[in-house]
Amino acid sequence: MRQAKIKTKLLVAFVTLNVLCAGLITFSVYSEMRPHFLEAVEYTLIDMTRVMASELAAQAERDPLNSLKTADLKIAMEKLFATNFPSRNAYDSGNRSALRIYVTDEKGIVLFDSKGGEWEGQDFSKWRDVALTLDGKYGARATRSNPDDPRTSTHFIAAPIQAGGRIVGVLSIGKPVESSNGFIARSKLRIIAMFLITV
Known about the structure:
The protein is of the alpha+beta class. It has four helices and five strands. Helix content is 50%, strand content 19%. It has a five-stranded antiparallel beta sheet. The chain is elongated, with a radius of gyration of 24 Å.
């Protein structure tokens, strides 16, 4: 009888230890998923800003005064937001780009804004993404439309537009965090399901 009690206690201890270990791993993966996912989005935005900034730089190089031209970019953005692309999945059912793109000159004045020109003419030289980029550093910022709600945050990544051996402007691309929330939520549900199956 005593041996049976010892075996039962050992079994309970073993099961409890395994559940705790599985729970610890699950919690660790669950808590780290969001920042890692957003970091992956950031690297994608870095590539996008550099490619688009290089295109604007090439256009500026063709101008004798190295002046920025945003007319072609405006046409391209209007076409992007008007095009109804095929859906990839349920989280892409809107078929609309959530990106916010703007271009400033070398003084930080907005020359182009993809959202109907809402920011055009404004001084963005103090914004972190623009200020750091104009200073020759990596520029990025996260801004919330509602200061009390992290879900309303938009992450901006900037790249310098260089022509004639100097920085003539900044291109910054923003992506709302909420546009990625569906993918994060789905992945977290899968992790919870795997934990329950393991238990």
